[in-house]
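Continuing the batch. This is chain 6 of the set; chains 1 through 5 are on the previous pages. Same settings as before, nothing changed between runs. Recording input and output for traceability.
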Amino acid sequence: MEQNIHFYCIAHAPYAWQLPDFMTMIGTGSHVPEQGIAMSQSYPELAMKNRYLGEYVALYAIRRMLIESQAEGFVGFCHYRRFALTQPIGELRGFNYHAHPDLLARVLPEHFYGDGKTPIIPTMVTFQGSVLRQYAANGIARDLLLYFGAAIDCGVITDQEASDFLSQNAFITAPTVAYIPIEWFIEIVGALEKVMARFYRYHYIEREGYLERSMAFCCERLQALLLAKKADAWGWDKLVSNPLVLLSEQGARS
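Output for chain 6:
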């Protein structure tokens, strides 16, 4: 299984813990991992866009690699300290499991990719308000509304899908962190890249601090919608869906 697995771990800085050998490291921005792919060297036209697109620049590069290699099967992702596991570790706090990095050494390879043919995705998280209200609590509603408008204009979603999603009170948080069919990934990320290009051209406003990555946060919501549609068609009872594991020094040790 490990010889043919497509599994990537994305980071903008060196990892503070040991990762399994089957994972390919992807360094965004100027980060050059000791082993793996440095986007500043392999995809310089994308690498520094992580400033406002976060981990999504790596997804664009991985999509190109998978298409060029005509890869088949499933592809997995973790994002620095976030992991989707079949058997979570640590302690459930809120909607994530919090684990000390030392616990990662106990995780078996199959906990990352299961049987190799079943999707593993984060659970749907319910909030007190709508998706739009939840976004607006930490961001600017204008950005999310115009981003979803761009998605409608690109034909990625319908007006009704946008309205229903933004009005509901639950979505898949951090949908990048998953193990899914390559076909799903190529389709979803292709749609995100198309919408991002339109939004950047017509609506993007450069912001500072946390909101510098506002477009990445909008991408996350649209990806959550597109991934949920795939999960609905597959059948939620036929896939694995758990809260994500978040590594931190303050995480549980057992």
